[in-house]
Write a sequence for this structure.
């Protein structure tokens, strides 16, 4: 897939006037609400380039504007086709906004549409450099469960797990920082129209960050569950 600095979409044929339209949501000829093609990604719905830095104020403003224009209340007296399109577009707009406003979900989505992220991929083994710490954590978790079952003293075990949780929370912050840094490299690659090999290398790195992040997050969740 060839990257581009802007989301460009081929002209569509309006279902109402049958003219070619350059509009994303409304026909540029007759103004009728249009069917969004399945090939249109979330970035294109907001007429944004496929870049990972997004100005949140602008995104929210665009979302509110489109939400108002696409709201079903505006199409109560319109044709059945337009009423259906309004409901569908409003739903797709909400989905797109929910993903694009979240920096991690945004990376996951980009990798998904670029074919670099597969469902369930994050379910992996512990990263090699974390094996010893994960082993110790699992031992502590087992000890806590046994102590709970035996109604024993949990003070020392809980203190050890709280320290482990803090350690992995710090690792989560670290991997988020690495993900943001690599995301900036992706944007730079788009701006300079980098070749496919270069872009795939960056995406593979972001994929690694996401896998590591998902694993560490799961560890933190497990510890929090036992401590509660």
């Amino acid at each position: 897939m060839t990257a581009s600095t802007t989301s460009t979409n081929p002209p569509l044929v309006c279902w109402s006037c049958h003219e070619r339209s350059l509009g994303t949501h409304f026909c540029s000829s007759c103004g009728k609400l249009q069917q969004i093609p399945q090939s249109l990604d979330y970035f294109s719905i907001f007429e944004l380039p496929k870049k990972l830095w997004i100005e949140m104020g602008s995104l929210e403003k665009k979302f509110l504007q489109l939400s108002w224009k696409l709201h079903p209340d505006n199409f109560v007296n319109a044709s059945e086709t337009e009423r259906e399109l309004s409901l569908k577009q409003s739903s797709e707009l909400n989905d797109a906004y929910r993903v694009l406003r979240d920096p991690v979900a945004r990376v996951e989505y980009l990798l998904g549409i670029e074919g670099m992220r597969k469902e369930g991929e994050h379910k992996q083994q512990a990263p090699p450099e974390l094996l010893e710490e994960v082993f110790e954590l699992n031992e502590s978790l087992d000890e806590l469960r046994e102590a709970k079952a035996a109604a024993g003293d949990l003070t020392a075990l809980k203190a050890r797990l709280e320290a482990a949780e803090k350690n992995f929370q710090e690792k989560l912050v670290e991997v988020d920082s690495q993900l943001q840094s690599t995301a900036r490299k992706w944007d730079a690659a788009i701006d300079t129209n980098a070749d496919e090999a270069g872009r795939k290398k960056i995406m593979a790195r972001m994929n690694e960050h996401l896998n590591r992040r998902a694993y560490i997050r799961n560890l933190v969740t497990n510890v929090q569950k036992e401590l509660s």
Observations:
- The two ends are 47 Å apart (CA to CA).
- Residues 1-7 have pLDDT under 50 and may be disordered.
- The chain is about 60% helix and 0% strand.
- The longest strand covers residues 12-13.
